[in-house]
């Protein structure tokens, strides 16, 4: 028993060591990635539920590491980038890149005078005193009005540091920049606490949406969330719609916008542009 116990200990140590090395490697690879511009952006359309028209899009970061040609998913590298603080640089790059792209598309596609783009903001970025001026500067640099850029902040980030974030959300609102609460339903806020947050958009997490056609409890929850949000003058987005059954269920509820693989997958800029062009003809 003793030896097997020690054996287990050794295996455990080795695994921890490998994880630590992997982590360190990722940290330095991420630092290089910023310098070497290894990031790009994909855009996922956000669709008006009633009309099927394009409303705007969500920008999502992608990282193709220089050491291989594999795409590393954001769920893997964002937490590391947050811990090292590199997320601030990635976030600033995203802001500038997305504003530049949005400005170009708004000129190129005047048939969408209200076209907007949302960008995900990490809780670490929210802690930076320079976030607001970085946003205002990026908008000014690309001659964009504030209502065409929306920020997505997760429910758990907002809940994590409410006393700091609520005044920031109020400042953003005063600047005309709308904020969406992302992944709603996965954090710890109660439905009743929603009224305390100065947010304009509520994105219902896909874990609810994806069970909506299978389980009555889920559709009852989503219906309740949507009704409350509408009463609080928020726009409601149902994200992660993958099946026609899910879409049909959502269409019976009061959701303004839909997003998901069924409607459109996230696409690199060039592909998004040809998608926009195809919709013209
Ligand atoms: P999120 O903000 O909730 O973004 C939605 C995620 O769901 C995206 O994954 C998107 O590709 C995926 N998705 C869209 N439609 C569907 C669907 O129908 N089914 C399923 N299963 N998935 C769908 P992605 O791009 O891998 O991003 C994962 C998360 O990483 C994001 O979740 C967000 O929290 C974070 N993230 C992505 N880009 C950025 C960024 O630029 N900055 C920051 N801070 N975080 C980012
Ligand atoms: Ca998001
Ligand atoms: Ca989300
Ligand atoms: Ca998510």
Automatic annotation (TrEMBL):
Please state what the protein is called. Bifunctional diguanylate cyclase/phosphodiesterase
Keywords of the record = Phosphoprotein
This protein's source sits in the domain of life called Bacteria
List the coiled-coil residues.
none
Among its keywords, does the record have Phosphoprotein?
A: yes
Q: Where are the transmembrane segments?
A: none
Give start and end of each EAL domain. 23-280
Taxonomy of origin reads: Bacteria, Pseudomonadati, Planctomycetota, Phycisphaerae, Phycisphaerales
